[in-house]
Amino acid sequence: MRPFPFLLSALICLSACGAASDRYTVTSPQVTQTQTIAFRAVEVRDVSLPAYAADDEITVQTTDGRILSDGGVLWADTPDRAVALELSRYLTQITRARVASAPWPFEALPDARLDVRFETLVAGDDGQYRASGQYFVAVPDGRRERAGLFDLSVPFDPLIGPPAIASARGQIILDLAVFIARNGLR
């Protein structure tokens, strides 16, 4: 018997025996706010997440500060990529500017570059999804560069579980986009 077909058959059988992971997409809330900003084009250059938030597993923080996860409950997309794309989409809808995540896809360079560094991005078992950290707006043409802190939270029903957490994450990233548009890009 040839080893490769046997090994392939064994791997297929073993993978069929493992429990399937549940993957959750982030629900995109309706964007209703608009904000005029000082830039026509903005690059979301970097989104930095804490290790637990950058992991594919959906996590919950307990009241005593522990971060827990169930290996079978995952985000449908890698969180750093997804958050950068969500921020880009929401900033485009809010500002009507040309916004894209890195790498910048256009020939003409952006007027500003946005970096967002999360200190926390986590669902709490108390029903609050929290996001805190800093944002930085770099402007290559010599205009005023900006930086600021954010500390946001949105409620969710912890009894609903991962679908409620995914919905809350969508809302908190929208709230962050509104906050940055008003405070960092004007």
From TrEMBL:
InterPro entries per UniProt: ABC_trans_aux
One Pfam family named in its UniProt record: ABC_trans_aux
SUPFAM superfamilies for this protein: XCC0632-like (SSF159594)
Extent of the signal sequence: 1-18
Residue ranges of coiled coil: none
ABC-type transport auxiliary lipoprotein component domain boundaries: 24-181
Keywords linked to the UniProt accession: Lipoprotein, Signal
The name this protein goes by in its record: Lipoprotein, putative
Source species: Roseobacter denitrificans (strain ATCC 33942 / OCh 114) (Erythrobacter sp. (strain OCh 114))
Lineage: Bacteria, Pseudomonadati, Pseudomonadota, Alphaproteobacteria, Rhodobacterales
